[in-house]
Records
---
Amino acid sequence: MNEIIRVEGITKVYRMDEVEVPALRGVDLTVEHGDFFAIVGPSGCGKSTLLHLLGCLDKPTDGRVFFNGEDVSALGDGALTRIRSRHIGLIFQTFNLMPTLSARENVALQLRLAGIKGAQAARMAEEALEKVELTARMKHLPKQLSGGER
Amino acid sequence: MIDIAWKNMWTRKTRTILTILGIAVALELVIMMTSIVDFTESGMQSELAKYSGAGQIYVRSQTTAGVAGQEFPPISSILREEEGRQIIDEVAGQVDMTLTTPILFYQLAPPPYPNAAPEALLVGLEVDKIGAYIGEEPVVKDGVVAFSDASAREVILGPMASSFFGEPAVGDEIQIIGEPLTVVGLIEGRSLEDRLTSNVVIVPLETAQSILGQSESISAVLITSVRLDNIGALAENIRASHPKVSVLTQEDIAENLDTILGQERMFFNMINYTVYIIAAVVVFIVMVMAVSERTKEIGTLRAIGASRWLVLRTIVLEAIMLGLMGSLLSIPIAYLIDMGIGYGLREVIGAWTLIQIVITAVVLSALAAAIPALRATRVNPIEALRYE
């Protein structure tokens, strides 16, 4: 079975003061290994909300989210954090790199959060940066990198 | 995550340096205050040791309620010399007459801090009985511990008093209340903290009376009993025959020194606690600012898998490093200041006291960072990502 993420009838409703704002209504989706998805839609249609739920950053108001076959809809913060650290990679619109860490340290940070020891994480980060031809920029801080390099 | 905490501090150099300096200056004050207490305590203990077995009694005037029993030496006491000598005559058979003398005190320079001994204390006593007050075997730095006659215009100085008068040499003339006196002897305190001998400006009793314009009055009578087991009875006899005087036995002296020490310790501890709180508030404010500034970073960390515990640890670790560096820096600052003012406090303060101060600073820093750190753990990654 190649399924990684499956969502079943998820609904997300935000409560703002006394007003309920529905963001998602009955979304079903399955993501398998090798899939490449782009979620598009007008502003306010719930793209970010869906990504938050798929990324285990948030919980649905209703419906269920399965990650590697496990229902994560009811998991606590600690368990969701572990899933995020070990199985999910996030690239942000404005990159959100740690401004005090170098390029190599930023890459290694995610590995360290996944439980890989410092020296090994640094080596793996260097290898990854070599692949994208950023060896010369490894010790540079995010502010010293161009938009593309970030 | 010590590297992240360290880099957070290093990146915001100015704020980090100012915070560390703030903590260092505050704790330097704690070191100075603590060393003053240790300094005084050590001196008091040396005085207590001096009196144990000395069998001394001070006969002084009654003082107002609340003051009696607290002042030692009895500087504010005034007795008629005639009455003092009468008391000595009455007890002559039971006391060591070579160490029994009328004595006159006058504060020439106030204490450098509350409850301390005066910086310079004029002590007038009979010329051949100097040992009754400063001990029979004073350490002489220069000159002699003796006067040429009963009305000699001569003076013997203790080390702190000598410093007060600008470190004169033997043979130099110094002005005391407008009167020129020749320095004939310089003594060392029996120890640096010796509360009684350090500040003395010893002159013959007649000279002291002449300078102060009190030809017929003294402060007290210093009596040294021949037998230690007789002190209580001796004191009772004096009280019975002279109901208007107050009799201070060595036990009272010890109690007084202990009371003074207790008050002093309380006074300085109050300052110390306040300074600790100030240092903790500095750390608290800095960490609140740090967390507020880094909401987006903390949110990102949480989003990519940093646990709440890790975030909390990183913030607290940063505060601990600030506290540790500030407290370590406070030690050389305190030493430099002490060298500058020349109190010699650094000779008194022990390594364990410094370790305690560092540990207290580190613990307080961690506690001060607890609230901002808990706030950081509550940062919702989704909220933080909305900065996008």
---
Amino acid sequence: MALFIYGVATNTGKGFFTAEDRRNFFLRGYNGHDGSNYVDVWAIGANERGACWLADRNGVEKTKAEAQALVKASDDINRTAWDNDNVDGESADEKVARIGAKPGFVTVV
Amino acid sequence: MSDYKNLRGKKVKFFTSDLSTADSEGQIFYSDTDKEYKVGVLGAAWSSGGAMNTARALLAAGGGSPQSASVVFGGATPSASALTEEYNGSGWAESGDMSNARKLLAGLGTQTAALATMGDGTATTSEEYNGTSWTTGGTLNVGRGRAQACGTQTAGLAFGGEPNDQKAKTEEYDGSSWTAGGDMNAGRQLGSGAGTQTAGLAFAGDANPGLLTSTEKYNGSSWTAVNASNTARKQSAGYGLQTAAILAGGTTGSNVATTELYDGTNWTASSNMGTARYGLTGSGTQSVGMAAGGNSGSLTNVTEEFNQTAMTVTAAAWASGGNLNTGREGTATGGTQTAAIAFGGGSHPTYHALAETYDGSSWTEVGDLNTARQSHGGAGSQTAALAFGGKQAPNAGLNNSEEWDNSSWTEGDNLNTARAKMAGFGTQTAGLGVGGYSSPPETTFGLTEEYDGTSWSEQDDLSTARRYLQGFGSQTAGLVTGGYVSTAQTATEEYNGSSWTAGGSLIASIYAGGTAGPTNSAGLIFGGFNPGQGSVITYGYDGSSWSTRPNMATGRSHLSGTGTTTAALAVGGQNPPSTKNLAATEEFTGDTTSLNLKTITDS
């Protein structure tokens, strides 16, 4: 049996996940992008409560590959933004000091 | 017909609020609020504890350790490990490694006097732990592995194991040497043990072949068969006393979460663990214990606490809080979990002057800072906050400060040294700004400046200059930890109002994380930057060492935090590698306990 289910659901703030939810199932959030907008991607412990949590929040279940693709799309946007964020005459080290290292890729659990 | 007073010698009391303490177990009372009769009842349950730093199975514990001072060592990661970790009832901290990596080892003793012996194969070696480091112990007479142990470092008992001709053998340890004891009636390996050298208990395991329910007790010289457990299994957690033992988890061919309790005569089923697994270990008493690690399909770092009490323990956890109106990183936060203020921050390439207050549910925009800034210092409360330093351009540090009076921001005194990426904590009239960074020229600071509500004054420098460090506490009991200079740091320094001294090092380096804590003896750090992505990790500090706490749900760095170790708030940040700044917040609630009440009905 898979350890996690994956889905997209918008974090609406207070009450979106409770302390009780966190005790009942694993939950990990990621930034994703669906081609139009940033989306909240979730890896959820594969038990009944986890599955119900996603459904109760009008979440859309994804496969792990689909969830990873959404996260990679966000990563790609941000890596491109980093590539395009340049100052004339700035060295590579100076760029890292200014805006940090080039973003890497996030791997969903 | 007799009544309650005749039976128990006292009347049923009448209360307007429920009883709430453990000594109320068994007391019947009438709740005038709920119009019901209630009683405090004993309950048994597993609840989640802090995760170990390293996931592993086939490890051992000092089985006589209490839940709040446990130690585990060795195990498979999947290769044999020498790692030692200590549990304080909330989280795990790494300690000194064993001299020899071992898995399928046997362990006994306590957090300050433990023994590790044998392993996978026919090892004869033992190691003794003193709470800090391991030294060589006595040599077994016959090498073996997959054995069980119980007792203390100076009166230990090891029994069973492999090879098959040794699976019924027993050896006793006196703190320096091993001598042969009586043979068990049924040989076993991968079993469990509890009790002492003169009152030991062997249960579960594998007769190789055949899983066992058989149980035997030891009197210091010989073993006697007693009533069997209910479910045959091996590689379970077992600990406790000969007259009050616990058996949990293991494998029957499939992982199980079932728990059985032994009362000196019979085994009875109790509450299941949350995570079925084998190869776990445990320690404590039958009433208050813990089980850690194992394999639940993969190696796990899960810890569960077992409590048999009238008090229900609810484990600490992070929950979602209200979303900021404007997602941002590098903000500063003051106040409490239910009365906070967040001010400044950035959403690349914009620097914000925005301020928002939080009521424990939602954020409301309030008066802007006069100077937009990011990665600045912050201190104070929702009604009396202090903002200082920061940056308004990529790396050029600011020196001005601003005071919030619950209505608007007014200029305060300037820092002596302009800088950003510093730690800020304390109050509006007793604030502290520590460390930081400015460029050009690229400089990382160890500076400390105190604010008295009027002016900033320089104080003793940190031993290690750093930026993006985490800090919490007060002007007279402060702490900074982690941060970055050339590389990510783990060092902690404590401030007493005049000078800095070394504190316990972080379990792993963290920078650009959030913090909460009113004093340098009780704080949390959470999130921060891991190469490649924001972290979900939470650590707690007790005045001497760091230990793990439950993770946040969303990894983030460059966040801010406020509150206490039992009610903290994590605000905003970024979730690298995204440049999308987070509006999401999370609220941490520490462990809580409440009386387990049952309503009495006539049905």
